[in-house]
Write a structure and sequence with these properties.
By secondary structure, the chain is an alpha+beta fold. Helix content is 69%, strand content 6%. It has 22 helices and seven strands. A hairpin with a 5-residue loop joins β1 and β2. The relative contact order is 0.08.
Length: 538
């Protein structure tokens, strides 16, 4: 038993020499008591730094209270408390534990004053304290804060944190924060050159910002190294910016694909210029809004499933409205494209006004489920989850529609009607019902496009208006009625738009794209992928 106790004592002594220990409560209270005698801001700052140097998380409470202006000294005994206003007096809380310590009149206590410089020191001190947190995310946040606000005083606590860090990714961030602190210190030139090399390898805009300030305040080899590192980072960032524009273009292309794919079917099969197609998108978005309102009020636990529930409902609502429009109006106007344009334009105005009457003219709130919220980075490429899911969804809709068109009897009939309507009718295909169901299908797809667009755009009566022209451009550019042409056209126009916007602006960029499409159509009137058949070639 004695041997076991001796071994235990030796292990405790050994751990005591290897692990940093926090200061005792008595030592911390002695440091906090120095606030009472601090006569000016430099003296208060010295106490703050002494507390931070203790490394004890308990000092976060008094430091945070000081930053908020709620740290007080009781005049009677010069004890320091955290204070909260309570009626005419101040409720006093223990500076370390937060336990209640009675109340005091405002005349019996004095507030420890703080300025902006002290607040920055306190912020850095609190960041230093979080370096020892058990949560890696907290340590990462602390390292990031210390990198963006470097201070030579951070070098020593960072050295301790680096020595104790076991997570490689966190350790790398801590080393970068230490390098940033070295650059603002009076350290030797060799250390600063090594720090510049480490920060240069980080390769992001925060590194450029830090190195730019170092370049402006340094001379000789340090200045030259900072300049070279900035140049290298900017070259790398230019490539990442190009990749970011491509991603934005693909993201925009997925939205255009969703908005245009239904139009490609109706326009290709029936030759109907459907100006109410955007309103089908709008109906899908409002269906999503109604579903979310019902879930919020009655089944809040199902909110993350709201989009899954809204998808079939939006398809049915838009498809039924499309079927009514085709049976009640468009079937009397086949062969007269300009009249279908005017008629469907009138229908679009009626639908917009109906939605304004039911839901009001203002934007409606449609929330993002948790699985569509937030973002992540791939290198310097920022990717939002909602845009990524919309891309996956658009490609999924395209694949299902392609299967229907190529592998089902109904798809075969649609293709037959597209290729030669008279021959299809003579073979027993009921072309009027093919037209009706095809129009309903195109409208239904526009409805589920509205579900996706509700996650990235304002849900209002004017939602569809912003996509109808772009949808027609995609369909005409890709080839009327050709799904592959719609896919290629949507992503091509999306990428071209995003590369033109930084130079020409959003509006002028769209005008340039329109002009380019007009010039392209002059050379290829049938678009990128022209349909084959006697009827379409006639």
């Amino acid at each position: 038993m004695i041997l076991i106790r001796a071994i235990g004592l030796m292990l405790l002594l050994l751990l005591g020499t290897l692990l940093p220990s926090n200061a005792s409560e008595a030592d911390l209270r002695a440091i906090i008591a120095k606030f009472a005698a601090a006569a000016n801001f430099p003296a208060i700052e010295a106490v703050v730094r002494e507390l931070a140097a203790s490394g004890d998380p308990a000092v976060a409470r008094p430091l945070a209270a000081l930053a908020e202006g709620s740290l007080y000294v009781r005049k009677a005994d010069s004890l320091v408390f955290v204070g909260k206003e309570s009626g005419d007096g101040i409720e006093l809380l223990d500076a370390l534990t937060g336990e209640g310590s009675g109340e005091a009149a405002k005349a019996d206590i004095s507030k420890i004053k703080v300025n902006n410089t002290l607040r920055r020191v306190i912020r850095d001190a609190l960041g230093t304290l979080t370096l020892g947190s058990k949560d890696p995310a907290v340590r990462i946040a602390a390292a990031d804060t210390m990198f963006k606000t470097p201070d030579a005083a951070n070098i020593e606590p960072l050295d301790t944190a680096i020595a104790n860090e076991s997570v490689a990714s966190v350790k790398a961030l801590l080393e970068q924060a230490r390098a940033a602190s070295i650059l603002v210190s009076d350290g030797p030139e060799a250390d600063k050159l090594a720090a510049i090399a480490l920060i240069g390898a980080r390769g992001d805009r925060d590194a450029v910002s830090l190195l730019t300030s170092v370049e402006a305040s340094s001379e000789g080899a340090v200045k030259d190294a900072a300049t070279a590192a900035i140049s290298n980072i900017n070259s790398t960032l230019a490539l990442w910016d190009a990749g970011q524009n491509i991603w934005y273009g693909i993201s925009l292309g997925s939205v255009l694909l969703l908005a245009a794919i239904g139009l490609a079917i109706t326009f290709g099969v029936m030759g109907v210029i459907n100006m109410a197609h955007g309103e089908m998108v709008m109906l899908g978005a409002y269906t999503t809004f109604v579903v979310q309102e019902v879930i919020r009020n009655s089944f809040p636990g199902l909110f993350d499933w709201s989009l899954v529930i809204a998808l079939p409902l939006a398809f049915l609502v838009a498809a039924l409205v499309g079927l009514v429009i085709e049976r009640g109006l468009i079937r009397f106007l086949y062969g007269r494209p300009l009249e279908t344009l005017l008629a469907t334009w009138g229908v679009s105005l009626i639908l917009q006004q109906a939605v304004r009457t039911m839901f009001g003219p203002t934007n409606q709130e449609v929330g993002n489920p948790s699985w569509m919220s937030g973002s992540f980075n791939i290198g310097q490429l920022a990717v939002t989850w909602n845009r990524l899911w919309i891309l996956v969804f658009a490609l999924g809709v395209f694949a299902v529609l392609l299967y229907v068109m190529k592998r089902t009897p109904w798809g075969l009939q649609m293709r037959a009607v597209t290729a030669n309507r008279r021959m299809a009718a003579s073979m027993g295909i009921r072309t009027p019902w093919v037209d009706a169901l095809t129009f309903a299908l195109g409208s239904g797809i526009a409805g589920i496009a509205g579900v996706a667009l509700s996650q990235i755009d304002n849900v209002s009566p004017n939602l569809g208006r912003g996509y109808i022209i772009d949808s027609f451009m995609v369909v005409v550019f890709g080839g009327v009625g050709n799904l592959w042409g719609t896919l290629v056209g949507a992503f091509s126009l999306g990428i071209v738009n995003k590369f033109l916007e930084p130079y020409a602006g959003a509006v002028l960029g769209k005008i340039v794209v329109l002009v380019l499409i007009i010039l392209f159509i002059q050379k290829r009137p049938r678009g990128l992928f022209a349909l084959k058949g006697r009827s379409v070639e006639a």
